[in-house]
Amino acid sequence: MNTNFNVTERYIANLLSQFPGLKSSAKRLYQKINYLIYKKNYSYQTKYQIQTIDSGERETFFGYYDKSPICNNGKYIIYHESEISTKKLPSATVPVFLKVYDLVKQKEIFSHESYAYNWQQGSKAQWVNDEEFIFNNFDKGEYVSIIANVKTGNLKKIPSPIYDCFKNQFALTLNFERLMSLRPDYGYRNKPPLSNDDLFELKNDGVFFIDFVSLKKEMILSLQQIIEVGHKIQMDKATHKVNHIMVSPNGEKFMFLHRYFINKKRFDRLLIADVDGNNLKLLCDDEMVSHCCWVDNKTIISYLRDKEFGDRFYRINIEDASKEILGEGIIDKYGDGHPTFNNYKVLFDTYPDKSRMKHLFIYDISSSKLEEIGGFYESLSYYGETRSDLHPRFSPDGEKIFFDSVHEGKRRLYWINLNSQSK
């Protein structure tokens, strides 16, 4: 029995997106009914061995799909640990703990609290080299970031939160207060929402560059500059934000999403620029851009809408903005997902199907072959801001897959070694 949502169902969902309140309630009711009809008698299914870190009753997770929790040399894993149930909204007064697990010694070697986090991206923890990682925190009334050395325990405070980093050289960031006001799934709750006046302040907010040596922070792109590229009249009365900044592999460019809202309806655009803010270019502007990843310094994979070919995964050439359908007739039926690329292979997940199972796939671009890695159940107890997308990530060597899942009733970080199948 096919448990995937079909084209008609996705079309209806797109129509309902014009009425967000109605869509949310109708969607949840429809999902409950479907689950009762299609539910499985198992919580996960895979031919691979699954590993996790035992944290007792506490829940664990890493965060987003754009970074791997394991460092380049494969020795350490960073993750978040929560004392409170992740079925509840994050708390500004209860921290999560950044943990480092030594795979060789098989024990925890580092722990530090963070008050700036959410369930989707955690505290934006990411490795900057094999011994140091960075994460966001809230300290003395301000959002900051901390570079932690797992060997010495030394902590270096950066007077600004980060979004994406290039090694231990620099970071790009955004206004997390604006993000909290317009997309709380990815924001932090330690400060009050922006006022309407602040939301419409576009000249002094946007994308910022942080130098890790000088600690200097400067705005490289304002929201006003971003709006002027491919400007539409309807943007003038909209509220605006940037999100999902991703630096290219060589550290020379970055992509990001510009999202604006008119009467609660969202419009998405994909743009790229040099890391100093120059050469800003609009790549996609057909209302919907979802999840992206870098393939190399000139190519992006993204799930987005093309008015001629529809909602699909596309491979985009950033030099001329041309795009081609990825995996046509092979991966189309699974809809949106979170892609990660490694050595001709695209790892991606799905949203819950009618049986509330989410699936992991690897698509080999060189052979056009698709392999299902596994399926994992997500209860409707995890929903909206507390949802647990799989957010899969390759290890740097491509031999492991890391993902967050709730198929055992608690949010946990898991990993699979692709060279080790279950007996």
Automatic annotation (TrEMBL):
Protein name: WD40-like Beta Propeller Repeat
Organism field: Belliella pelovolcani
Organism phylogeny: Bacteria, Pseudomonadati, Bacteroidota, Cytophagia, Cytophagales
